[in-house]
Amino acid sequence: PFPNNWDIAKKIGDTACCEENWIRYSVVNVIESLKNKDLKLVIDCGIDDFFLNVNRELHKKLLDRKIEHDYTERPGGHTGEYWGKTIDYQLLAFSLFFNAVEPQKK
Q1: Stated pTM of the model
Q2: Which of 37, 74, 39, 36 is nearest to 55 (CA)?
């Protein structure tokens, strides 16, 4: 939904000539190729963030496809202040993931 941001068009082409790339590389469409537990997914977004609706759409699609993920909305926007408040939660999620013990196979 942000074709004019972050020089994305320089990498995958603009939406006029290369619409298929925008569809193929959009996160919400990549979900179609995922199976549950292929990835450890964590989505954390402020309720004043311009990405909020995109994240909500992604969350809904993950739920519909029964793909496990962590989803959090909390007060704040797309700012360093928000990230500063959430970094401890992100680090905890990474720590739990990377320190998880694989179950023994029988």
Answers
A1: 0.73
A2: 74
